[in-house]
């Protein structure tokens, strides 16, 4: 690594430390710091370079194109800062991803990589800090798999703009709630229900009860979103027996019933969001 890159890494490292202090206090401040850390990293130039050389295959916002892959999906998010620099520098043998080493300087590659982090909604690049960037913690990776498969959280929750809308988006949930409230939300969903995500029960004339996330209400009708998130159904009040607020969360107690290991993994993943 050249002294130049190292130097940039050092400067960034100190601004990242400031950032992390902010994460612990105020999210609004975090947002501003993230922006200024971004411009420190020369993201301005990174963006121009990206648009000139990378956009054609990876898309304007890193969403991916025919000849390239998305740079904002889970595998790309998981690349460590060093891996990100390496893949741009050395390319991927046998694929359309060429080595840019000869055509771009190390600083230019660093700037583009920082811009990619920006597209991923992450703090700017920091070299030599293991805590930074996407996680390569095996617990986090296993937790993400659980979230999207057997624990079935993705039916109702999104992160990085993927997933369902029955429950709140879980981006930044770790710092938003803190450890205790997060654990409580998982172990005992009904103990406190996030405002705007309450449950309604509609009792129909034949006695069946339908539960879902309350969406809208008028004098004549009530609208609820089904528990699988797929349907928004309107019930006319004069055609049902009762419409009730429920103090039970739509969220099932899946988490409480997982094994300790799986709980640990899922928790690690949620904290990484
Ligand atoms: C001709 C098309 C093309 C161009 C131009 C291109 N790439 Fe790629 N890139 C690819 C392909 C294809 C892959 C997937 C390689 C593979 O299968 O592992 C890739 C992979 C990557 C990855 C790894 C993503 C991951 O999830 O592992 C990064 C990062 C990346 N490119 C960044 C860049 C940057 C930065 C530029 C501009 C300097 C660039 N690419 C230019 C085609 C391209
Ligand atoms: C059937 C839909 C559904 C499923 C499945 C579901 N949730 Fe939820 N979740 C909700 C709803 C609705 C809320 C908001 C109401 C409440 O506070 O209980 C919520 C709230 C949460 C919260 C609190 C969020 C906040 O902003 O305070 C967390 C954390 C959470 N869920 C995590 C999970 C995890 C992890 C899983 C998988 C094990 C999961 N949920 C499965 C519907 C669901």
Radius of gyration: 23 Å
**What is the count of β-strands?**
7
What is the count of structural domains?
A: 3
Architecture of the largest domain, CATH level 2?
Orthogonal Bundle
Q: What amount of the residues lies in strands?
A: 5-15%
CATH class of the largest domain: Mainly Alpha
- SSE pattern, N- to C-terminal: HHHHHHHHEEHEEEEEH
Mean of all residue-level pLDDT scores: 81
Distance from N terminus to C terminus (CA atoms, Å) equals: 30 Å
Q: What is the CATH topology assignment of the largest domain? A: Cytochrome Bc1 Complex, Chain D, domain 2
The major beta sheet can be summarized as: 5 strands, antiparallel
User: Unreliable stretches, pLDDT < 50, 5 or more residues?
Assistant: 1-42, 128-133
Q: Which strand order do you get reading across the main beta sheet?
A: 6-5-4-3-7
Helix content: 40-55%
- Characterize the quaternary organization of these chains: single chain
Shape: elongated
- Count of helix runs: 10
